[in-house]
Structure formats: structure tokens, C-alpha cells
Amino acid sequence: MKEIDELNWNDITLALHNKGYALLSDVLTDQECEDLKANYSHPDAYRKTVVMERYRFGKGEYKYFDYPLPDLIEKIRRTVYPYLAAVANAWNRALHIEVEFPAEHEVLLKQCHDQQQTKATVLILKYGPGGFNTLHQDLYGEIYFPMQILLFLSEPEVDFTGGEFVLLQQIPRAQSQAIVLKPKKGDILIFTTNFRPMKGTRGYYRANMKHGVSEVYSGERYTLGIIFHDALS
User: Fold this and answer.
1) Does residue 110 sit within a domain?
2) Domain-located, residue 231
3) Stretch (H or E) spanning 94
4) Residue 207 sits in which domain range?
């Protein structure tokens, strides 16, 4: 894996401010991706399995990790968080939201636990032919961090076809904009969980955002989502 601190965080921060997402190419090695996929069949690593069709979330399956998280995932979550906390705090100031996120991830988790949000939210997702994920937001409780990251573990057009990642940007009093991305195996996508500020003629306004996955036509598509806050259940 590339060293997180050696990534170009100036460019990443600018992309987050301008678009609400940033794509980081070739961060994970092929072997790291394969190891995470292989771990999918080890039930002891997970606290809960969700079959999407049962809840009308889409078609596919995902599993929530249990604590302790795998070392690689814990390292990414802990190391990326301080960079994103600075962006999140800038967004809140622009939108006059009186929430200040702590600089250290451990402090955010302490805030979650004080609100009885103690369950791990890191999850791995698997889609087969016909699989998809409806547009949604990952909040999980009163305490939530407004950005998350997604690790892409499968190669498009090789391991699967279809299955594009979709962001929907909802602008007040205007038509919504769909953003369609197809990251490669080993890429990491940082994106807003809930909203982002956009500059208008009278200052900044809030653009709500949701995310999902378009239909997979063939093969298997694996991704791993790293959410920074814990959940109630």
C-alpha cells in the first residue's frame, strides 16, 4: 500500500472542496485486494451479514466487520481521518454548522461511544450478476462523520462488467446531477456521506448527496467501505 501521508493531500483536499469526492489511484496492491476478498468467507471477522433484497436496499450482500478491525483497515482509517477532519470542519464553517470534529479519530469514536454508538461500521460488499445498490446515505446515529472512503477490490471489465459507482448531487430548486465513476482495482474513493457546500451568489449553500451502485451485468464486484463513525446497531 502507498503511504497515506505521502499522497498529494493538497490536490485531494481541492477535489473534495470542488466536487465532493476525490479518486486516489493505485493505493492498494493487487495482493492486498485479494487478501481482503479472501477474508469475505471467514465468518469470525464479521458481526452482521445483510442480504440487500430483504430490506429493498438493492441486490447483493454485505458484511459488517467486528472489532478489532484488520490491521490494514485500521491503519487507513486512523491515518486518513485527520486530513478529512480538516476538510469537514471547513465545510461546517462555510455552512454555519456549529460542529467541530476532533483532530484525532480516537476522540470521534469516544464521542460515538458516549451516545451508545459502539458497533463497527466498516463493511465489505459483494455483488453478482444483477446486483445493485440503491441510492442512500450511511449515517447510523446522532454522531456521524460527513465523509467516507471506498476501497475497490475488483477490476472492471475483467472481474465484472457494469457496476458503476454513482453519486447523486441534489441542488436546491434545481435538477439533480448524477456522477458516474468506474475506479480500478486498488483505487480508493473518498466521498461525502451526506452533503457538501457549494458556492452561490449569496455565499455557500448545502447540496445533499447520495451514493449507490448501478447494475452488475456479469462476474463479481467487491468493495470495502470505511466509515469513520460507529453505529447504534
Assistant:
1) yes
2) no
3) helix 71-94
4) 7-225
Q: What pTM, to 2 d.p., does this model score?
A: 0.96
Type of residue numbered 116: Q
Q: What is the DSSP letter of 69?
A: P
Task: Let me know if residue 2 belongs to a domain.
Answer: no
| pLDDT tens-digit series, residues 173-230 | 788 999 999 999 999 999 999 999 999 888 999 999 999 999 999 999 999 999 999 9
C-alpha cell at 86: 480538516
pLDDT of 37 higher than 90: yes
Side chain identity at residue 163, one-letter code: G
Distance (Å, rounded) from C-alpha 139 to C-alpha 50? 16
Q: Give 40-54 pLDDT, tens digit per residue.
A: 999 899 999 999 999
Could you give phi then psi for residue 99, rounded to 5 degrees?
A: -130, 130
Structural domains of the chain, count: 1
Complete DSSP assignment for 127-158: E-TT-EEEEE----SSS--SEEEEEE-S-BTT
Sorted by sequence, the CB contacts under 8 Å of residue 189 that are 6+ apart come out as 21, 22, 23, 24, 149, 150, 152, 165, 181, 183
Instruction: Give the three cell numbers for residue 170.
Output: 441534489
Residue 232 belongs to a domain: no
Strands 177-181 and 132-136: unpaired
Letter for the amino acid at 198? M
Q: In what order do the strands lie in the sheet with 221-227?
A: 21-24, 188-192, 147-152, 221-227, 123-127, 61-65, 46-51
The CATH number of the domain holding residue 129 is: 2.60.120.620
Task: Indicate whether 137 pLDDT > 90.
Answer: yes
